[in-house]
Amino acid sequence: MFQYHCLNPIADKGLNIFSENYKKADTLEGADAILVRSAKMHDMELPDSVKAIARAGAGVNNIPIRECADKGIVVFNTPGANANGVKELVLAGMLLASRDIVGGIEWVAQQEDKTDIDKRAEKQKKQFAGCEISGKKLGIIGLGAIGAMVANSASLLGMEVYGYDPYISIDAAWNLSRTIRHSKTLDEIYTQCDYITIHVPLLDSTRKMINKEAFTKMKDGVVLLNFARDLLVDEEALIEALESGKVKKYVTDFANPLVAGREGILVTPHLGASTEESEENCAEMAVKELRDFLENGNIKNSVNFPNCDMGTCVTVGRISITHKNIPNMISQFTKILGEENINIADMTNKSKGEFAYTLIDLESAASRGALDALQAVEGVSRVRVIK
Fold first, then answer.
1. Is the separation of the CB atoms in 50 and 3 below 8 Å?
2. How many Cβ atoms from other residues are within 10 Å of residue 48's Cβ?
3. Mean pLDDT in each 10-residue stretch from start to end of the chain (387 residues)?
4. Contact between 292 and 54 (Cβ < 8 Å)
5. How far apart are CA 377 and CA 359, in angstroms?
6. Which residues, other chains included, contact 33 with Cβ-Cβ below 8 Å and sequence gap of 6+?
7. Angle, in degrees to the nearest 10, between helices 101-110 and 117-124
8. What is the model's pTM?
9. What is the C-alpha to C-alpha distance for residues 212 and 219, in angstroms, rounded to an integer?
């Protein structure tokens, strides 16, 4: 029997995927797994029972990734599950920034005298006029699941799309329309595009990447959209760019005191993935990842450990080992098992940066002595009996 705890409300469509071998725990104590959306976890004391955390979404800045890796806790996310919801909001953001739709709606709502409002609206509509996005150049920074979907949709809307991503995956490249122009430098995006949208993770290397220097390279009157992370943009430099006219509009999904209510900035209250479909997709993917890990030891879409899949165990036993990615680990594992007369039927070892993961199928059950010896190996954080 496995126990899981939800730090945030998780869609029932996902939770219903758990079998009768799973019990929802009211507290963290004794939980094998945690499901989370936006709850801040950096100051939480996680019990030793926790083996995995699944973020029902893509961003994991609310989770202490490194600390979890050190403890052998595998952290999952759900890349692409909410991509369509974010894509649609990005497209809406471009339209809202291009034509003063919000201003027009507010003008109509503020008219106390509704007499002849149709005639007055005809006279006023010029002040809300804008431009069409068809024929304009859109620059996309980051061509992951969301960026690629935005690129394809914008192309179908008649935009000339430039995409920049030096780390684009093979799958993402295959999914891109042939009409997308692949930019080799960010400068090409900055100097050529009328609209720029950011779709990269928040890392030390990307923090405030859209800065004063970047703004100076952009076309006058550019529209900037940020539905990824607020800290990707140096918002103080952005305010200067707005006031100078370099930036026409800034559309962001992240409200804070600096941008909220400021002229030239359209702020939505973190609505990117707030659709029923996105929340259900994320919940389903997160639960499936947890089940495959807890029941089979397989890892898919982890942010701190490598992908590793040995399917369903068909031998007598299976153990998993989370450990540091250092030399001589495998030989120590095999030596310990050999000394206990435990034959290895199959084994795989994968690494990701400083950390590694080993799955071993055994022809006989692992003895207590073997498990203790494996746990005692320097660099091992967790040994778990899967079967």
1. no
2. 9
3. 97 97 96 96 96 94 96 96 95 96 92 90 91 97 94 97 91 88 96 97 93 97 96 97 97 96 95 93 98 98 97 96 97 96 96 97 95 97 97
4. no
5. 16
6. 2, 3, 4, 5, 50, 51, 52, 53, 54, 290, 294
7. 150
8. 0.82
9. 13
